[in-house]
Amino acid sequence: MDNGALLTDLYQLTMLQGYWRHGMRETAVFELFVRRLPERRAFLIAAGLEQALEFLAGLRITSDERDWLATTGLFGAEFIESLADFRFTGDVDAMPEGTIFYADEPILRVVAPLPQAQFVESRLINLLHFQTLIASKAARCTLAAPGKLLVDFGMRRAHGAEAALYAARASYLAGFAGTATVLAGRRFGLQVYGTMAHSYIQAHDDEAAAFESFAIAQPGNVTLLIDTYDTEAGAAKVVRLAPRLKRLGIPIRAVRLDSGDLGEHARKVRAILDEGGLTDVRIFTSGGLDEYVLRDLLARDAPIDGFGVGTSLDTSADAPYLDCAYKLEEYRGVARRKRSEGKATWPGRKQVYRRYDQAGRMRGDVLTIEGDPQDGEALLVPVMRNGERLHREALDVARDRALAQLERLPDELRDLDGAARYPVTVSARLRALAADVDRRVANA
Fold first, then answer.
1. What is the dihedral of CA 253, 168, 296, 305, to 10 degrees?
2. What is the value of pTM for the model shown?
3. What integer pLDDT is reported at residue 2 of this predicted model?
4. pLDDT band at 444 (very low <50, low <70, confident <90, very high)
5. Which region, left, alpha or beta, applies to residue 28 given φ > 0 means left and ψ of -120 to 50 means alpha?
6. Distance between CA atoms of 195 and 180, rounded to whole angstroms?
7. Which residues have CB under 8 Å from 436's CB, separation 6+?
8. How confident is the model at residue 259 (pLDDT cuts 50, 70, 90)?
9. Domain 10-134+320-442 classified CATH 2.40.440.10?
């Protein structure tokens, strides 16, 4: 994957040349937020900050990249030469990964010389948008199937290699146990899970022989896929095979179902396994799962112990994008505000304060300007100063935060239909600042 500086939109570079030519290098403040929640989403979970900070800390425009820019004919030679020293030297405040947030609340603020703050827009949105999208989807699965084993199964239909890796990371952050994607296990320290494909069964002349050969080859990880031909017949073969494997010291951990009415098959398979003395063999399911299917299966008391969630998770199929924005809110010490129809922003450097009720549940947020303290917890914290990271946070710390935040959600926001709306109040001082900016622009 080429994650160089040219992984950006052309207009970032054309604006950079304009800023360079006209000497516009004063401090700018940009904030990244989501304008509105997708349908059926009552909350979002911030994710991807680790990769965003890695990008900022390592930002360089290499000689090869500069040479290529020269071939485009779009940029002057002096400007291209100036890019040799281009670095990010600014400050970043952000909501820590795993923080629940709502529409219009900034999850990241960049304070830096205007060319730097502008140039990083595209990649920051790219990194934070995707993992936030997937973590928010995964959190809904976590809420729908509390206490169940959840595994990311979506690599093969993810939109590219980076998406597959970051979907595994984001889903783990939001409560999944691990992933089937091996490289994600290596890169992020995740538990990897896997069984077999139907092709393994089909490659053998006999289904029971396929089960046995797999068990002998993988004696410490025996999960058998039993629905290639007839699900209940497959379960019966597992029962007959189990004593022979036991004599070899090979336990059967689970069976997997991947098709049909998963709830009904699970019920029948559970009865067959139990009658055969395999009460400790778990049932794991996959195939077309999402949070709604999980909710419905558990509402039917389906005896399923774990779920592999794939395509719907890694593509966030029902809500495949967030209306993310990264907007200029201050330049040269003066608050700025976009007023475009349907896309107006709140000006200035902002902070979000969260209040909780006596039971520790989220009660409401206040969006205000920095320096206007409110009751509650300030959600944006310093993460980078002068281009240097202040600390690194382990993924498990962010995961613990996300799970704790989900526990603090009001009951109505845990509903998958997303009808309830969480109260976010805009402070009087922020409203007054917006009015001041509007008057100044009107009189300009």
1. 10
2. 0.96
3. 65
4. confident
5. beta
6. 9
7. 335
8. very high
9. no
CA 79 to chain centre: 37
Residue 104 near residue 114 (C-beta atoms within 8 A): no
* Rounded CA separation 444/434 (Å): 15
Domain spans of the chain, in order of start: 10-134+320-442, 143-314
Beta carbons within 8 Å of 50's beta carbon, 6+ residues apart: 97, 392, 393, 395, 398
Q: What is the pLDDT of residues 410-423, one digit of tens each?
A: 999 999 997 889 99
- The length of the chain is 444
Instruction: Report CA dihedral (87, 93, 95, 96) to the nearest 10 degrees.
Output: 60
SS (H, E, C) the chain: CCCCCCCCCHHHHHHHHHHHHCCCCCEEEEEEEECCCCCCCCCEECCCHHHHHHHHHCCCCCHHHHHHHHHHCCCCHHHHHHHHHCCCCCEEEECCCCCEECCCCCCEEEEEEHHHHHHCHHHHHHHHHHHHHHHHHHHHHHHHCCCCEEEECCHHHCCCHHHHHHHHHHHHHCCCCEECCHHHHHHHCCEECCCCCHHHHHCCCCHHHHHHHHHHHCCCCCEEECCCCCHHHHHHHHHHHHHHHHHCCCCCCEEEECCCCHHHHHHHHHHHHHHCCCCCCEEEEECCCCHHHHHHHHHCCCCCCEEEECHHHHCCCCCCCCCEEEEEEEECCEECCCCCCCCCCCCCCEEEEEEECCCCCEEEEEEEECCCCCCCEECCEEEEECCEECCCCCHHHHHHHHHHHHHCCCHHHHCCCCCCCCCEEECHHHHHHHHHHHHHHHCC
- Topology of the domain comprising 143-314: TIM Barrel (3.20.20)
At 66, which amino acid appears?
R
Look at the block and give the residue holding tokens 């800023």. 19
The per-residue pLDDT for range 364-378, each reduced to its tens digit, is 999 999 999 999 999
